[in-house]
């Protein structure tokens, strides 16, 4: 799981902080390993596994060897060892320790529709075909993204690219459901999606944790990501602005985010939008040496002088 503002290691630390204290954590999926069950941009909700052992078929959020995290499916459980696989290549398995499990994905939504996470028999061939097609597309998108990054390195070309892309983008806003299986309990959220020709190309999320829960007392910007070929087109800036606008309209005077210190693209974006470094929350488990906590300073004007408004479909 990777995104512009919160990478895999930061997500693992945040999830461990929230889920170990009984909370629920919404986050956006990124990648193709669980395709077609879970797709890039789907909204997932994870909860802790305390009190209920993982079972075969569960979709788990677990730590990886590099200190990050991923979402894959449990194939079998043998004592303290768990065999996992991804839906895109179910024949390829690996083992983790039960201590590596951070939580269980209990809900997945796509375009406001609840998804079925259960594993049905006879889908192996379909999953294999989906994986082959997905990988071919992935390599094409990656090559296009590298080409765009090179072409938009200079500011004038980046502005021209933004002017060309801007008329094509529509923005949608989704609120957390108040009731039902997909409700997040002590977490409320508003998600924004950037859509071109019916396809989601960017997303960001405004999250508010309930009282007496980890990271409560302020709003958080999480899950910022933009499709690689469209980075530099201003979509990330607009999504950030819409989150700021939403937080301000709801009466929040404290909007924060966590970002890797080596993520220079994100740091430039957030700094230009009025975010400034601040102390990390006391209950957070992320490493202050590698992760920077930033707070939106409403006193410092942004370079554009105003918060741009989205065009919602």
Give a description of the structure:
The structure is a single chain. The protein is of the alpha+beta class. The strands form two sheets. Strands 1, 2, 3, 4, 5, 6, 7 and 8 form an eight-stranded antiparallel sheet that branches. The chain has a seven-stranded mixed sheet with strand order 9-10-11-12-13-15-14, covered by helices on one side. It has one domain: Gcn5-related N-acetyltransferase (GNAT) (Aminopeptidase, 3-Layer(aba) Sandwich), CATH 3.40.630.30. It has five helices and 15 strands. The two termini are 28 Å apart. The protein is globular.
Output the keywords.
single chain, 313 residues, alpha+beta, Aminopeptidase, seven-stranded mixed sheet, 15 strands
Named at the architecture level, the CATH assignment is: 3-Layer(aba) Sandwich
What CATH calls the topology is Aminopeptidase
Mean pLDDT: 80
Under CATH at level 1, the class stands as: Alpha Beta
Q: Using only CA atoms, what is the Rg?
A: 19 Å
Give a short account of the largest sheet.
8 strands, antiparallel
Strand content: 25-35%
Low-confidence stretches: 1-5, 179-184, 300-313
Question: Can you count the helices?
Answer: 5
Number of strands: 15
- Shape from CA axes? globular
Note the topology.
Elements: H1 8-19, E1 24-28, E2 43-47, E3 59-63, E4 69-78, E5 81-86, E6 89-97, E7 101-110, E8 113-114, H2 124-151, H3 155-165, E9 169-175, E10 187-196, E11 199-209, E12 219-226, H4 235-249, E13 255-260, H5 264-272, E14 275-277, E15 291-296
Parallel strand pairs: 12-13
Antiparallel strand pairs: 1-2, 2-7, 3-4, 3-7, 4-5, 5-6, 7-8, 9-10, 10-11, 11-12, 13-15, 14-15
């Amino acid at each position: 799981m990777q995104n512009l503002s919160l990478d895999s290691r930061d997500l693992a630390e945040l999830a461990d902080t929230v889920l170990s204290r009984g909370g629920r954590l919404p986050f956006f999926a990124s990648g193709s390993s669980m395709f077609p069950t879970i797709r890039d941009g789907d909204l997932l909700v994870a909860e802790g596994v305390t009190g209920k052992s993982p079972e075969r078929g569960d979709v788990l959020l677990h730590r990886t060897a590099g200190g990050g995290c991923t979402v894959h499916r449990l194939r079998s459980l043998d004592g303290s060892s768990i065999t996992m696989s991804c839906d895109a290549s179910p024949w390829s398995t690996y083992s983790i320790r039960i201590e590596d499990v951070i939580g269980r994905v209990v809900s997945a939504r796509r375009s406001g529709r609840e998804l079925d996470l259960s594993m049905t028999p006879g889908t192996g061939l379909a999953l294999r075909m989906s994986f082959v097609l997905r990988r071919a597309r992935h390599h094409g998108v990656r090559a296009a993204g590298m080409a765009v990054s090179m072409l938009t390195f200079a500011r004038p070309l980046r502005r021209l690219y933004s002017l060309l892309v801007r008329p094509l983008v529509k923005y949608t806003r989704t609120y957390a459901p108040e009731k039902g299986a997909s409700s997040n309990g002590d977490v409320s959220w508003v998600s924004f999606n950037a859509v071109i020709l019916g396809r989601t190309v960017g997303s960001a999320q405004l999250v508010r944790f309930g009282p007496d829960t980890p990271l409560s007392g302020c709003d958080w910007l999480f899950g910022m990501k933009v499709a690689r070929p469209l980075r530099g087109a201003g979509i990330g800036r607009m999504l950030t602005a819409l989150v700021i606008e939403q937080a301000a309209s709801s009466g929040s005077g404290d909007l924060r985010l966590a970002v890797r210190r080596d993520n220079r693209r994100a740091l430039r974006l957030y700094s230009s939008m009025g975010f400034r470094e601040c102390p990390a929350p006391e209950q957070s488990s992320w490493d202050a040496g590698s992760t920077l906590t930033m707070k939106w300073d409403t006193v410092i004007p942004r370079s554009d002088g105003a918060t741009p408004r989205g065009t919602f479909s």
